[in-house]
Design brief:
The complex is a heterodimer of chains A (805) and B (133). Chain A has 805 residues and is α+β, with helices and mostly antiparallel strands. Among the domains of chain A are: 123 residues; 130 residues, no CATH class; 149 residues, 2-Layer Sandwich (Heat Shock Protein 90), CATH 3.30.565. Chain A is built from 21 helices and 21 strands. In chain A, strands 1, 2, 3, 4, 5, 6, 7, 8 and 9 form a nine-stranded antiparallel beta sheet that branches. A five-stranded antiparallel beta sheet of chain A has the order 11-10-14-13-12. In chain A, helix 12 packs antiparallel against helix 17 and helix 18 packs parallel to helix 19. With 133 residues, chain B is of the alpha/beta class. Helices cover 50% and strands 21% of the residues of chain B. Chain B has five helices and five strands. In chain B, strands 2-1-3-4-5 form a five-stranded parallel beta sheet, sandwiched between helices. In chain B, strand 4, helix 4 and strand 5 form a beta-alpha-beta unit. The longest helix of chain B has 16 residues. Chain B is globular and about 35 Å long. Chain B starts with a strand and ends with a helix. At the A-B interface, helix 12, helix 14, helix 15 and helix 17 of A face helix 1 and strand 2 of B.
């Protein structure tokens, strides 16, 4: 029990300390914090586990400690107990022996005093032979509760010696028996002649009940006093035996009395089994049991084996029994070191507290199972464990609250502040709820956080200012870049133009040459014709004149246009015709005819041809024809020149006008083709398929740029030799311009990149790479789209889709 | 007398027309005049004329034409007919091309469009003079 108290105290102190620590750290009223559960929970779980482990360890330590202490304690206790008990038990047994010594002395003295007297009268007065032959007390005088009962064997011859002894024994036994009765129920004296003087008030009819069968000298309780068994003539103790007359189990102390070396009597005390057992079995340490056994292995008393002992008539030999436990006990006791009182019986896990009952020299053993200790210790340990768990729960709960208040809540405040700052809320409100006043790390953190927040604010402000600055700068740069880009675009245009200029110059010079030449011819021919006209009318007859003017009219009415080649062929045919008509040297005539655009049926003019003045006439006719032809030539040439100049003008326009105008796609394409005519005619077959389409709303100058760039690329791809096809057609709601070249084609890998600014496959200096980029931007401006279809080695088609509204 | 031909080659019809009228006007019936729009046709005509035993005296050719360029054409002609007077009449001629013609075709002169009548006639006449003399 002591241990429980100590343990309890220890634990209480421990937990009070914990609680104090927890309590004295609280600052503010608790707030309900929602989101730090996991942190709180994990901490609590961790702490809980650790504390639980500590509690278990403490419990185990306590148990061990208590156990070891208990063992010592118990051993000590047992020691004292058994010693006391031994003494206590021995007392009675020693007393028996002491009593017998007293009585023995007295008996001898009395007998000596009697000497040789023969107290027959007294003898006969008191005793009488019963019908069965046994001499007993006279019934009328005998009170078994107050007097000693006498039993004399029926076969015995009564002589003076017998009488003397019987009377002496009768008197003394009564006297002493009464005196000793409070400690011993029975006091008796037995003689070797089968006589007994028995003072036993509890069994008042003993002698009456004793039969002729009774022969005491054969009984153990007498045998242990005879000379054979007891040569030392000392008191001796029986084992447990069944007294037939009283019908009860007892152990007896018997002391032999010798007179003149003759065994005359044995004094006896009985210790009734019940008493003995009562004490042995019932008076014991709680949980332990007592056993008594004799030195020779005879079991006297054992709480469990009493029936077996009785069955064996008191002769239960441990050594002969199969009982291992008893054997172990016996061996341990026998083999113990001389003075040890408490020994361990390891096999049966028990303590044996051993003491001797003086007198009978019996072993009185208290068997104390160690499990008692264990259960005691266990109980205490359990108690400690229970307290530990209780304290654990309390501490966990407290910890929970403290964590919430100390950690979770400040963390939440930090999180809130962080979030506010993250959303650029630098107001005072953001950081005012931080625990700035705390003196611990969290307070420090709050301070730093505050500082950081204000720094952030400054940084952000600076950043904002800087950003605005930079944006302004960027805007300026963008403007610059836009202007530069526009310049670049214009430069592109001019560069393209530059490449064309040489060709254009040629294109213009050609018509100029034709004009100059034709103008001269015109002047000359006119002069000559005017001069010679009069002569003509002199020479020609009226009829001939008619034919002549018919010829002229024919010429004017017949504007069949033949190519140079065709004209040559016609010339041949005509010459052959005229030859057939019999004209010699028809060549000059055919020249004239051809010049007059008369390519057949020249025979109608035979009369003129056959005239003597035919040469003169036809010369004039020819000259007249040159007038027309020259004029025509000039007109054509002028138109050619204008077309080119117009195209040039159109192209070179630096017009970035913001409004769309309606313009004809065909016109635009033609303009560009004109500019490139010089390049194209060098070896390119031009195929034009213009569908009949209305003009569309667009930026015509910029579209011209598109055609120019694409055409330029196409021609270069073909190396100025091949086929160029230009198709204008309507599709869905779009006007589609498709320009196809028979050039080298665009490989699939590059196809994606061709619209990238500054991307070019040409060598440095040959092309800026902006051409298609500009095209794309112009098409985007028109909300159109551009598609590229290309096969390497075969050619490329650029299709431009322009929305028609 | 074998007929003599002045051959004009130019891809522009207006040029050929004006040349025809001009030459006829200036040089008269002394010569025959043939006209081709490109070198191929010109070569064809040359073959024909040669077959007819007609002499070609002068070739006036443009440089920038579809197909064979003027210089190449004249060089080719020169290989067969070194005696023909060869004149380049052109609005635009690659300097190297002209040099080539001079070197390999014995180019008599290169006249630029727009040409002066006098220049043209003078060139032809001088060329002929050299050829005959």
């Amino acid at each position: 029990m002591r241990y429980r108290v100590i343990a309890f105290n220890i634990l209480i102190i421990n937990h009070l300390y914990n609680i104090k620590c927890i309590l004295f750290n609280r600052n503010m009223l608790p707030k309900i914090v929602k989101s730090q559960n996991s942190l709180t929970r994990t901490t609590i779980i961790k702490m809980g586990v650790r504390i639980a482990l500590i509690i278990i360890a403490v419990t185990l330590l306590s148990y061990w400690h208590i156990m070891s202490n208990l063992e010592l304690q118990v051993v000590e206790q047992l020691n004292k107990y058994i010693t006391e008990r031994g003494q206590h038990e021995s007392t009675l047994f020693l007393l028996a022996e002491d009593n017998h010594a007293e009585l023995k002395k007295e008996l001898l003295w009395q007998l000596e005093k009697l000497g040789e007297q023969d107290p027959q009268a007294e003898f006969d007065r008191l005793f009488v032979r019963s019908p069965d032959g046994i001499i007993r007390n006279r019934p009328e005088l005998f009170d078994g509760t107050r007097k000693t009962g006498i039993y004399i064997d029926e076969t015995l011859t009564i002589d003076a010696d017998i009488r003397r002894r019987v009377l002496t024994f009768y008197e003394q036994t009564t006297l002493y028996g009464k005196a000793w009765h409070n400690r011993f129920q029975a006091t008796y004296i037995i003689t070797p002649e089968n006589i007994i003087a028995n003072y036993w008030p509890e069994i008042p009819t003993w002698v009456q009940d004793a039969t002729t069968d009774l022969y005491m000298p054969d009984e153990e309780y007498f045998l242990i006093t005879d000379k054979k068994h007891n040569p030392k003539r000392e008191s001796a103790w029986t084992g447990l035996f069944y007294e037939k007359v009283a019908k009860t189990w007892m152990v007896s102390c018997e002391t032999p009395v010798d007179m003149a070396d003759r065994h005359i009597a044995s004094i006896g005390h009985d210790i009734i089994l019940n008493e003995l057992l009562d004490r042995t079995l019932n008076v014991h340490i709680e949980g332990a049991h007592n056993i008594i056994f004799r030195k020779d292995g005879r079991l006297i008393a054992h709480p469990q084996y009493m029936s077996q002992i009785m069955e064996a008539d008191g002769y239960f030999d441990i050594l002969k029994s199969d009982n291992q436990h008893l054997l172990n006990i016996f061996q341990s006791v026998k083999n113990r070191r001389a003075d040890t009182v408490v020994i361990e019986n390891h096999q049966n896990n028990e303590y044996l507290a051993i003491t001797k009952i003086d007198g009978p020299d019996w072993y009185f053993v208290t068997v104390y199972p160690k499990s008692l200790l264990a259960s005691l210790a266990f109980e205490t340990a359990r108690f400690i464990l229970f307290l530990g768990i209780l304290s654990l729960l309390i501490e966990i709960t407290l910890l929970f609250f403290v964590l919430r208040r100390q950690i979770a809540q400040p963390l939440q405040e930090f999180i809130d502040a962080t979030q506010k700052i993250a959303s650029r809320n630098f107001s005072v409100e953001a950081t005012q709820r931080l625990p700035l006043n705390r003196r611990d790390e969290i307070g420090e953190l709050a301070q730093s956080f505050n500082g950081m927040a204000s720094q952030l604010k400054t940084s952000f402000d600076t950043l904002d200012t800087k950003v605005v600055e930079r944006t302004v700068q960027l805007d300026d740069k963008i403007e610059e870049l836009t202007r530069t880009r526009q310049e670049l675009v214009h430069n592109e245009k001019m560069a393209a133009l530059g490449q064309l200029v040489a060709g254009i110059a040629h294109e213009v010079n050609t018509p100029l040459g034709a004009i100059r030449s034709s103008a001269e011819t015109l002047t000359n021919s006119l002069k000559q014709t005017l001069a010679q006209f009069p002569k003509l009318f002199e020479v020609l007859t009226k009829a001939q004149q008619k034919t002549f003017f018919a010829l002229l009219e024919h010429s004017l009415q017949n504007p069949v246009i033949l190519t140079v080649k065709e004209k040559r062929a016609a010339k041949k045919t005509l010459t052959a015709e005229l030859k057939q008509c019999g004209i010699a040297n028809p060549r000059t005539f055919t020249d004239t005819f051809i010049s007059l655009s008369i390519y057949a049926k020249a025979d109608q003019y035979l009369p003129l041809l056959q005239d003597t003045n035919s040469q003169f006439v036809f010369e004039i006719a020819y000259k007249l024809s040159t007038l027309t032809r020259s004029t025509e030539n000039i007109t054509t040439a002028v138109e050619r020149a204008s077309k080119i100049i117009f195209a040039l003008k159109t192209f070179a326009r630096y017009d970035q006008g913001g409004e769309k105008t309606t313009a004809s796609l065909q016109e635009g394409l033609e303009t560009v083709l004109t500019l490139y005519h010089n390049k194209i005619k060098q070896g390119i077959e031009l195929i034009k398929e213009y569908a009949d389409m209305p003009p569309i709303l667009c930026y015509p100058d910029e579209l011209n740029q598109v055609w120019t760039n694409i055409l330029h690329n196409a021609l270069q791809a073909m190396n100025y030799k091949g086929t160029l096809k230009v198709v204008i057609s309507p599709q869905d709601n779009y006007a589609v311009v498709a320009i196809t070249d028979s050039g080298q084609g665009i490989p699939a890998e590059i196809k994606e990149q061709i619209f990238t600014p500054f991307f070019t496959t040409k060598a440095a200096g040959e092309g800026s790479g902006l051409g298609l980029d500009i095209v794309k931007k112009i098409i985007d401006k028109h909300d159109g789209k551009i598609e590229v279809d290309s096969k390497v080695g075969k050619g490329t088609t650029f299709s431009i889709w322009l929305p028609m509204e | 007398m074998a007929e003599q031909v002045i051959l004009c080659v130019d891809d522009e019809e207006i040029v050929l027309n004006s040349l025809e009228m001009q030459l006829k006007d200036q040089l008269g019936e002394k010569y025959l005049y043939e006209f081709a729009e490109n070198a191929e046709d010109a070569l064809e005509i040359i073959e024909e004329l040669v077959a007819e035993n007609i002499q070609i005296l002068v070739i006036v050719s443009d440089w920038l034409m579809p197909g064979l360029k003027g210089d190449e054409f004249l060089i080719k002609v020169h290989q067969k007919f070194p005696n023909i007077v060869k004149v380049l009449l052109t609005g635009q001629a690659d300097k190297e091309a002209v040099e080539r013609a001079r070197a390999k075709a014995n180019l008599h002169r290169c006249i630029h469009k727009p040409w002066k009548t006098s220049e043209l006639i003078e060139t032809i006449k001088s060329g002929l003079a050299i050829a005959n003399g």
